From TrEMBL:
Its cofactor is (R)-lipoate. Pathway: Amino-acid degradation; L-lysine degradation via saccharopine pathway; glutaryl-CoA from L-lysine: step 6/6. This is Dihydrolipoyllysine-residue succinyltransferase component of 2-oxoglutarate dehydrogenase complex. It catalyses: N(6)-[(R)-dihydrolipoyl]-L-lysyl-[protein] + succinyl-CoA = N(6)-[(R)-S(8)-succinyldihydrolipoyl]-L-lysyl-[protein] + CoA. SUPFAM superfamilies: CoA-dependent acyltransferases, Peripheral subunit-binding domain of 2-oxo acid dehydrogenase complex, Single hybrid motif. The keyword Acyltransferase applies. InterPro entries: 2-oxoacid_dehydrogenase, 2-oxoacid_DH_actylTfrase, Biotin_lipoyl, CAT-like_dom_sf, E3-bd_dom_sf, PSBD, Single_hybrid_motif, SucB. Residues 2-77, 102-177 form the Lipoyl-binding domain. Its EC number is 2.3.1.61. Keywords: Acyltransferase, Lipoyl, Transferase, Tricarboxylic acid cycle. It is an enzyme of class 2 (transferase). NCBIfam families: PRK05704.1, sucB. Residues 253-272 are annotated as: Disordered.
Amino acid sequence: MTTEVRVPTLGESVTEATVATWFKKPGDAVAADEMLCELETDKVTVEVPSPAAGTLAEIVAAEGATVGVDALLANITEGAAAPAPAPAAKAEAAPAAAAAKPVDVMVPSLGESVTEATVSTWFKKVGDTVAQDEMLCELETDKVSVEVPSPAAGVLAEIVAGEGTTVDASAKLAVISSGASAAVAAAPAAEAAPAAAPAAGKDVEDAPSAKKAMAEAGIARDAVTGTGKDGRVMKQDVAKAVAAAAAAPAATAPAAPAAMPRGPVSADDAAREERVKMTRLRQTIARRLKDAQNTAAILTTYNEVDMTECMALRKEYKDLFEKKHGVRLGFMSFFTKACCHALKEVPEVNAEIDGTDIVYKNFVHMGIAAGTPQGLVVPVIRDADQMSFAEIEKAIAEKGKRARDGKLSMAEMQGGTFTISNGGVYGSLMSSPILNPPQSGILGMHKIQDRPMVINGEIKIRPMMYLALSYDHRIVDGKGAVTFLVRVKEALEDPRRLLMDL
């Protein structure tokens, strides 16, 4: 005998509710009056008891579903032999499901200090057949994009974290129904997954409307005290927290600069505008650059370098260099070598502040700023001071390609001690680069431009480049900064000095 579980009376003027949580899953034995699920309205939370003892045979309305009064929620199979119907209910899928087993798709390692990511794109949908290691979705962190491969061949049975969802480093993204017969079982698995999966490990999941209310109010989960089952946050809890925050003295609010409000926009202009949400990477770039300005005492010193000798040396050896090493000889290796040379003489430019300490680095991990379609990233070439010209060029080429393809790992962008930024590739003649915290120095390169120069009393046309060193004046004095830039200039104008460590 089957008994229907329906939405109870919700109260005067309340016509619908949201299924917040299922405490049972299909196949579970239930006692009469045992709580099966929890409904949430805009006023109260309602627990739904089982109308009879038996087995939960089917969940009709999954978590998150909106249901009306008297809507069917589930079916209970009654009787002493109640546990048996659960397999019977799945009899049609049994031959296929017997060989299939669920495999969780988890968030992969995001790297040091990265605790969360946003699901940006799903390449597959529920019910799709997937091969092992086939890309399922792409996550976006504040530093890199991470593709998530399928851990097994089978069928995508459930997507737990949809596009736009923020997930932590240990979150479950999806469920794969794997096995030889997974494709046959795709339809039953896709239907059962939304009902069955929520019951596992979601006992303290906050109510959907509460999550929405917290997002709209911009209030953190930690600032809300949940009064629902097991500390679950309900919509009314959020309302109380917002009211309490508004009533608190202004002095307790965190000091933060107010965003500049937009000026009035005409209806005609507004219709032609396009509003696009900033990516996590762009938000992080913006925050870190502003933090650098707010924290460090940034000052920039300039000089210019005659590129005649570097250009002549490169022209003479570039074909032989490429033939032997399989990589083109560019100017970045000259600048990297020159900076490593200068950093040994002026170590404070290669240092960082840690509280009241100065940490001097007896190595050079060189950051090479690279522009990508997603924004500026800074891959790091480790121990660049120990590398040859060829090794530096190979590292720059390889990391530059990975940066443009969005394939850089977190480890490849951490630990830099100094940065070089080449705005010259975009035609920049002069700029003032901003520090990459916690580093204390960054060298800005610019375009090479022929200019008239006085050489031994004669005016000659020379290929000149402006150099800019931005530095943290808290630990780098003007003398050290100027000395560093002069040493870089000397090494580039006479590259033989690099060979002789002069």
